């Protein structure tokens, strides 16, 4: 990296500042409107609490509407339903039936994932699916603002709730519609911008949706056709969208037991980690630490996994079996048998609850190999840690 680049990197980019600026702007607007309405209606403690609860419910409503916008736009464009998540609750379609499961993805309040239409050389419909969520928020916000204005005299309390819902919808609509990356993750507007006149980016979106749909049906990455992981023109991980497909390609190599090839690809991706979404970069670094341990580089692996960034990432990804496996391996390598026992039990629970059966099976296979490598130093009294039935 050049000195100029190093110097520039000290300053936060517009995409990092904009979410915080919008949060401050809408927070100030909500506070001003709330104070004005409370003063006008003469609300006391109970009334204020009721209004705050109403606004909190309004945020939940806007979150559901956002994901519902993606769902409606996608279904209208020929996509198929796969999953719909709000918070940590997710409705999935598997074997033709709907099921309710728990699933959490750090940095997202919800997510609607669909199976894409068949790929065509000229691409496939993508803009409506990406922008359906923000447009739903903005449309409902406009209706709520109109309703709040209409009700301001007859029912100031109801008007306050409608205005609060509108403010929250404007915030969600703008932070998801204005192209930017939040916490390293590209938002809907960023995805739509990358897809413009970029066939490789369109293929990257198609591949991610198609692979996710296959995984939801229980298929393992190693069983999915290899051409799903290739981008037109041999495109590299030039941005978070394309980078995600390359990370999938890496995970496929791990699933197939091709660890040497996977390690070379992991090193390549981490060398250009600035182009990856933060969640993918940290996941690769965590994997690198685990493979350091498995290949006998214990000190190096523990140093990598004990870094503040990876520790924070592992806490954020609580419940992800692959990350819990990394933590379990680190505890074994460090001789922390009590912590290892706790993480082993947690790993079993997380694997049972994980909605991706093929992914869980792949993690179990890696677990067996990890215990063969790392349990040699475990004493006989602690042997049950590595051999839970």
Count of β-strands:
6
Average pLDDT, to the nearest integer?
83
Radius of gyration, in Å, reads 24 Å
Low-confidence stretches: 1-12
Distance between the termini: 50 Å
What portion of residues belong to β-strands?
A: 5-15%
Q: What percent of the residues sit in helical stretches (DSSP H or I)?
A: 55-70%
Order of helices and strands: HHHEEEEHHEEHHHHHHHHHH
Count of helix runs: 15
Indicate the structural class.
alpha+beta
Strand order in space, largest sheet: 3-2-1-4
What's the domain count? 2
The description of the largest β-sheet is: 4 strands, antiparallel
Tell me, briefly, the overall form.
globular
Report on this structure.
Helices cover 64% and strands 7% of the residues. The chain has 389 residues and is α+β, with helices and mostly antiparallel strands. It folds into two domains: 13-193, no CATH class; 200-385. Helix 2 (14-41) packs antiparallel against helix 5 (156-177), helix 4 (127-151) crosses helix 6 (188-195) and helix 9 (259-271) crosses helix 10. The radius of gyration is 24 Å and the shape is globular.
Summarize the structure.
This protein is an alpha+beta fold. The protein has 15 helices and six strands. A hairpin with a 2-residue loop joins strand 1 and strand 2 (89-94).
Task: Considering the chains and any ligands shown, give keywords for the structure.
6 strands; 2 domains; single chain; 389 residues; alpha+beta; globular; 64% helix; disordered N terminus
């Amino acid at each position: 990296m050049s000195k100029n680049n190093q110097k520039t990197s000290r300053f936060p980019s517009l995409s990092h500042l904009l979410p915080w600026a919008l949060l401050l702007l809408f927070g100030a607007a909500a506070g001003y409107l709330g104070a004005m309405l409370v003063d006008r209606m003469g609300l006391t403690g109970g009334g204020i609490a009721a209004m705050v609860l109403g606004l909190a419910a309004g945020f939940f409503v806007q979150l559901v509407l956002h994901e519902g916008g993606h769902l409606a736009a996608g279904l209208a464009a020929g996509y198929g339903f796969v999953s719909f998540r709000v918070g940590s609750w997710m409705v999935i379609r598997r074997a033709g039936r709907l099921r309710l499961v728990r699933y959490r993805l750090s940095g997202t309040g919800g997510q609607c994932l669909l199976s894409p239409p068949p790929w065509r050389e000229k691409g496939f419909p993508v803009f409506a699916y990406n922008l359906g969520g923000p447009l739903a928020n903005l449309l409902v916000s406009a209706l709520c603002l109109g309703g709040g204005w209409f009700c301001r005299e007859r029912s100031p309390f109801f008007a306050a709730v409608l205005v609060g819902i509108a403010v929250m919808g404007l915030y969600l609509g703008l932070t998801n519609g204005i192209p930017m990356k939040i916490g390293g993750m590209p938002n809907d507007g960023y995805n739509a911008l990358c897809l413009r006149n970029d066939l490789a980016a369109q293929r990257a979106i198609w591949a991610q949706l198609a692979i996710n749909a296959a995984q939801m049906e229980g298929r393992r990455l190693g069983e999915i056709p290899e051409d799903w992981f290739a981008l037109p023109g041999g495109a590299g991980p030039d941005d978070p969208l394309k980078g995600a497909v390359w990370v999938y390609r890496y995970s496929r190599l791990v699933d197939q037991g091709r660890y040497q090839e996977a390690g070379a690809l992991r090193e390549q991706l981490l060398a250009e980690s600035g182009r990856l979404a933060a969640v993918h970069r940290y996941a690769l670094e965590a994997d690198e630490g685990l493979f350091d341990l498995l290949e006998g580089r214990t000190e190096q692996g523990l140093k990598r996994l004990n870094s503040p960034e990876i520790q924070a990432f592992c806490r954020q990804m609580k419940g992800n079996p692959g990350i819990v496996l990394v933590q379990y391996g680190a505890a074994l390598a460090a001789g922390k048998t009590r912590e290892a026992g706790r993480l082993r039990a947690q790993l079993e629970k997380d694997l049972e609850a994980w909605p991706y059966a093929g992914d869980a099976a792949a993690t179990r296979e890696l677990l067996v190999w990890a215990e063969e490598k790392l349990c040699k130093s475990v004493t006989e009294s602690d042997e049950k840690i590595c051999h839970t039935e």
